[in-house]
Amino acid sequence: MPFATPYGPSITLSRARELARAAEAEARKHDWKEAIAVVDPAGDLIFLEKMDGTMAAAAVIARNKARTAARFRRSTTLFFHAFETGHSYVATLDRTLVASPGGLPLIENGKIIGAVGCSGGTGGQDEIVCKAAADKLQ
Asked: Do the beta carbons of residue 7 and residue 41 sit within 8 Å?
């Protein structure tokens, strides 16, 4: 079954902060202004940071990207590709679903412990920033 990675114990607040710092460092390296959200496996917010100068909408978008990645156990990029290829029905699955790159599940020991969502740049930039956080778990 695709996307059957099991849920594990929730990421802790201290770990969420650590991953957000890695994402922030990646954003600063490129001079991108980002909001970074880390959620638990159910999609509930654990940590949110909004860098100075980030667009006003970015915090809500980052949180919803993270929520989408956690609850659907997949990258938000997959929803983006579904929309781009004419499969807009996915918008009916959840009113908070975000179909834009920049949301990744956080996997540790083969289990989803949460997700990270980033917003403020292009979808590609957001994905790069999120990947810096997710890669800290490997």
From this structure: yes
